[in-house]
Amino acid sequence: PEDPTADDIMQSVHLGPDIPEDVRPALEEVLCKRAKAFGLAGWLGRVDRKANIPLKPGVPPISLPMYGTSPAKREVMDTQLKKWF
User: DSSP assignment, residue 1?
Assistant: First the structure.
């Protein structure tokens, strides 16, 4: 899919009436400047940055076995994953 444009974002995001008028322009600027970070029409957004997640020193990684889910939930997850990939 194509990356969303600033116009796409502004048409899709509805800023509520409770946002102060002095804050609204700055918020709109951030939304437009970072348009690619937001997913539209069921697609994931994209960010060209690496995240660093600090871990507690000396703590071993947690490993848990997979757990099951209902067939209905699994179908929903599979459908969404197919849309994304």
Answer: -
| 38 DSSP 8-state letter | S
- In the chain, where the domains are located: 1-48+69-85
Mean pLDDT of the chain: 86
Q: Is the pLDDT of residue 25 over 70?
A: yes
How many C-beta atoms lie closer than 10 Å to residue 48's C-beta? 6
| Closest CA relative to residue 37, chosen from 8, 80, 77, 76 | 8
18 conformational bin, left if phi > 0, alpha if psi -120 to 50, beta if neither: alpha
pLDDT of residue 1: 61
Predicted TM-score (pTM) of the model is 0.52
Whether the Cβ atoms of residue 35 and residue 6 lie closer than 8 Å to each other: yes
